[in-house]
Write a structure and sequence with these properties.
InterPro entries: DUF4845. The chain is α+β, with helices and mostly antiparallel strands. The chain contains 2 helices and 3 strands, in the order H-H-E-E-E. Helix 1 runs antiparallel to helix 2.
Length: 125
C-alpha cells in the first residue's frame, strides 16, 4: 500500500521564501517613509498645540516646526515643502513632499505625502 506524501516540495518552499523575501525587502524601504511621515505629523500637531502660537510670525511658526523635525531626524522635508499662511485668527500649515527610495535596479519606491494642519487660537485640532 502506497502512502500519499503530504506537505510542500522544496521548489514550492523556495518560491514561497522568494515571495516573502521580496515583500520583506519592499517593507524595509516603505516603512521608514511612513515612520518619517508620522514624525512630520507629530511635529505639526505639536506646533499647533504650542501656547501663544497664533501671535507669532509665520516664519517663527515654521522655525518651531523644523526644530521639532530635527529631534525626529526627519530629513525629507525641506523649507520649500512647507507653507505657513495666515487664516482668520490662526494659521494653516501645508506640508507637501516626496520621498524616492531605490528598490531594485532602476525601479524606485516613491511616496508622496501631504498634510494640512490648522493652527487655531486655543491650540490644535
Amino acid at each position: 500500500m502506497k502512502r500519499a506524501q503530504k506537505g510542500i516540495t522544496l521548489v514550492g518552499f523556495i518560491m514561497v521564501l522568494a515571495v516573502v523575501g521580496v515583500f520583506a525587502y519592499m517593507g524595509m524601504k516603505v516603512v521608514p517613509m511612513y515612520l518619517e511621515f508620522f514624525a512630520v505629523k507629530d511635529a505639526a500637531n505639536g506646533v499647533a498645540k504650542e501656547s501663544g502660537i497664533t501671535e507669532m510670525d509665520a516664519s517663527k511658526v515654521e522655525d518651531l516646526f523644523f526644530r521639532r523635525l530635527d529631534v525626529s531626524y526627519a530629513d525629507s522635508v525641506k523649507r520649500d515643502n512647507v507653507k505657513v499662511v495666515r487664516k482668520d485668527a490662526g494659521y494653516v500649515m501645508t506640508i507637501e513632499y516626496e520621498v524616492r527610495k531605490p528598490l531594485i535596479a532602476n525601479l524606485d519606491v516613491v511616496g508622496r505625502f501631504d498634510l494640512t494642519q490648522e493652527i487655531k487660537r486655543g491650540g490644535g485640532d
